[in-house]
Design brief:
Radius of gyration of chain A: 19 Å
Largest sheet of chain A: 7 strands, mixed
Oligomer: heterodimer
Mean pLDDT of chain B: 93
Mean pLDDT of chain A: 97
CATH architecture of the largest domain in chain B: 2-Layer Sandwich
Radius of gyration of chain B: 20 Å
Distance between the termini of chain A: 41 Å
Helix content of chain A: 25-40%
CATH superfamily of the largest domain in chain B: Dihydrodipicolinate Reductase, domain 2
Shape of chain A: globular
CATH class of the largest domain in chain A: Alpha Beta
Strand content of chain A: 15-25%
Structural class of chain B: alpha/beta
Strand order of the largest sheet of chain B: 12-11-7-10-9-8-15
CATH superfamily of the largest domain in chain A: Dihydrodipicolinate Reductase, domain 2
Number of helices of chain B: 11
Distance between the termini of chain B: 36 Å
Number of helices of chain A: 10
CATH class of the largest domain in chain B: Alpha Beta
CATH architecture of the largest domain in chain A: 2-Layer Sandwich
Shape of chain B: globular
Strand content of chain B: 25-35%
Helix content of chain B: 25-40%
CATH topology of the largest domain in chain B: Dihydrodipicolinate Reductase, domain 2
Low-confidence stretches of chain A: none
């Protein structure tokens, strides 16, 4: 199977290219990137052909593409890929507007290609373990959820609203909302959010707090802030606490690490030793194409999670809880 | 100084124990609605047991009345104590409504007696340290704060915690600790939004998620729980432009005792602890006594206690109505803050 990566603007592209080498029967054939130096360097590093224009890559015999461009460019690339009959794995957030996301979902459906949202946390072994515990009734009926996905301000296009569509709240809301939807089997019906720019002089928001209610009555909160200091021992976290009628389960997706006190760098770092969720994500995408099955996290899942983040911005703008129509 | 402890339950026992450790303090009496409980505690400390605070206040010179009864009973005892010109130490929350809290504050002021409210988190060294660090600019401009407190459902006399009419619900009873601490760190709260399981509805559990926006811009998340099957834990994290400080009680277990069951068959029990030479409760009570003696300025004022209560009431209102509660506007009971 031949894959292309469309843009290395998002740093996750490097991780996906890396893990692709470990998936049997898959070749990273093309790197398309309008940023020539970046694209050529990546193509050389991963043994792929470089093209500047992704349209050119779509004329080749690629089976699928991974879209890792700036958020605002996802829709254009994904829809073009779908029209060319290529399956699509799209970086999160899936888009920057509900309209764009729907065009992507419909475009892929119309062309009979897979559209998967890059939600590696769905593939995380501990997160899946908890999904099985919940489905097996270990904690009874879910009553409340409390999530975090904190990180550090990535800078660059991430803090340019026209390219990113939003700051920390868009960047770091979607993963955990996706898991909350997956665990509860319900949609977010109401969002309240406090949003701010407190950690640096950045053009976008860099912190926030979402308070949520699901259609089935479950209450939840989520912290998507870029609030981890430079000295934090790792990039950030993904945690979720689930309160049920029969018990409480907490998952810390990246707690499988050793702590390394390094005098040579003057730093303390966490060295992860858990399963690589990016590998599981990419392998899962390839698998869904080969077996012609629905991906574990679809384009619609990406859309629903993004919708919650966009509703959070609206709530912060209006100062009121926002109802999400599709869930009501 | 002659002290009378009202309420021979969990907190009354804790307070009585520490008073007997202090010099110049005479634990004169224990008052409780149950003669048996009053007598049992009084006997342990060589104090007088009584069913009636009024009788004790009439028959003896009482310097301090320490009110440790369930919250809905606070006001009557505080007013009695003030009328008898005794200083008052009251457990948190001061009252169930802002009006009642104000009545207590005014009565003590009018009687010329001091009123202290047991916002004990201010005396926990880990919280005090974090507040000092943050106040000194240790994390730069604060962006976000997160606090957690809770465990299993507390067992109290007549299961009073379960009745919001008596305890004010978990938001008011338990989370007030973190509301007070965060306000101590960041100043006044502008608005509150909250979701809660609505304690008392579901048997034996409650859980609440509270969003606070401070006038300073700080965003805080406060989680309170009485929904865990076991244990008790606290966590606090404050993140800013130049760093972050966090504390988790689960990571401060300095002594971990494991005991084998006598039958050597069943699993043993673990008893974690984090001992200090002086308990925060001791430090709190000793500080209140120093204030009464004129040796210290109060670390927590009656107004602080009222404000913390108002945040809690605002959160409870938000959880009930689904609306955002602005603290500059009127809150439940029509009181303007």
């Amino acid at each position: 199977m031949k894959l292309g990566i469309f843009s290395f603007a998002h740093m996750h592209a490097y991780s996906y290219a890396e893990v692709l080498q470990q998936v049997a029967g898959v070749e990273l054939a093309v790197v398309a990137d309008e940023h020539e130096a970046r694209g050529q360097e990546a193509a050389a590093r991963f043994g792929a052909r470089y093209v500047r224009d992704y349209q050119e890559a779509l004329k080749t015999d690629l089976d699928a593409v991974i879209v890792c461009s700036e958020n605002a460019k996802h829709a254009e690339m994904a829809i073009a890929a779908a029209d060319a009959g290529k399956h699509v794995l799209c970086e999160k957030p899936i888009a920057t507007s509900v309209e764009d996301a729907w065009r992507m979902v419909n475009g892929c459906e119309k062309n009979g290609v897979k559209l998967q949202t890059a939600f590696p946390i769905r593939y995380s072994t501990p997160v899946r373990h908890v999904k099985r515990q919940i489905d097996g009734g270990e904690i009874g009926q879910i009553l409340a959820l409390n999530g975090t996905n904190r990180g550090q301000n990535p800078g660059g296009w991430f803090v340019d609203n026209t390219l990113s569509g939003g700051g920390a709240v868009l960047d770091h809301t979607v993963h955990v909302i996706d898991i909350m939807r997956w665990y509860t089997g319900s949609e977010v019906r109401e969002v309240y959010a406090e949003i701010g720019t407190r950690f640096s002089n950045t053009p976008t928001d860099d912190c926030g707090l979402l308070t949520l209610e699901f259609a089935n009555g479950v209450i939840a909160s989520h912290d998507p802030s870029w609030s981890r200091p430079k000295t934090f021992p790792t990039w950030g976290d993904v945690t979720l606490k689930v309160v049920g009628t029969q018990g409480v389960v907490k998952v810390d997706a990246f707690a499988q690490h050793s702590t390394y006190y390094n005098d040579q760098s003057g730093r303390v770092n966490y060295l992860g030793w858990g399963n690589n969720a990016d590998l599981q994500l990419v392998a899962g995408f390839i698998d869904s194409i080969r077996r012609d099955q629905e991906p574990l996290a679809t384009g619609l899942d990406g859309l629903r999670a993004m919708e919650v983040a966009l509703a959070a911005y609206e709530s912060a703008r209006t100062g009121k809880p926002v109802r999400i129509q599709s869930a009501n | 100084m002659n002290v009378v402890v009202v309420g021979a339950g969990f907190m009354g026992t804790v307070h009585a124990e520490w008073y007997t450790e202090m010099q110049d303090v005479n634990l004169l009496g224990i008052v409780d609605a149950s003669a048996e409980r009053a007598e049992s505690l009084a006997k342990r400390f060589g104090a007088r047991a009584s069913l009636d605070l009024g009788a004790v206040l009439e028959s003896s010179r009482v310097d301090i009345v320490d009110v440790c009864v369930p919250t809905y009973l606070h006001k009557d005892y505080i007013l009695q104590a003030a009328a008898a010109k005794a200083h008052v130490i009251a457990e948190k929350p001061l009252a169930l409504t802002a009006q009642d809290a104000k009545v207590c504050i005014d009565a003590c002021e009018a009687a010329g007696v001091r009123l202290f409210v047991g916002q004990v988190v201010r005396f926990f060294p880990e919280y005090k340290q974090i507040r000092e660090l943050v106040a000194a600019g240790g994390v730069g401009q604060v962006g976000t704060a997160r606090a957690l407190r809770g465990g299993s459902f507390p067992q109290g006399w007549n299961n009073w915690y379960k009745d919001p009419e008596k305890s004010g619900s978990m938001i008011v009873d338990l989370m007030i600790h973190d509301f007070d601490f965060l306000r101590w760190c960041f100043g006044e709260v502008e608005r509150v939004y909250a979701k809660s399981l609505g304690g008392g509805q579901l048997s034996g559990m409650d859980h609440a998620l509270v969003s606070l926006r401070f006038k300073s811009g700080v965003i805080a998340h406060v989680e309170g729980t009485w929904a865990q099957p076991a244990g008790f834990a606290t966590e606090i994290e404050i993140a800013g432009s130049l760093g972050m400080v966090q504390h988790k009680s689960s990571e401060s277990i300095t002594v971990q005792l494991q005991k084998r069951e006598a039958d050597k068959q069943s699993a043993g029990v673990e008893i974690p602890s984090s001992p200090l030479e002086r308990s925060p409760y001791y430090l709190e009570l000793a500080h209140f006594l120093d204030c009464i003696r004129g040796k210290a300025e109060p670390l927590v004022t009656p107004d602080d206690a009222l404000r913390a209560l108002e945040i809690g009431l605002a959160a409870a209102t938000s959880a009930r109505t689904g609306g955002v509660v602005e603290l500059s506007g009127p809150i439940e009971g029509g009181m303007s803050v």
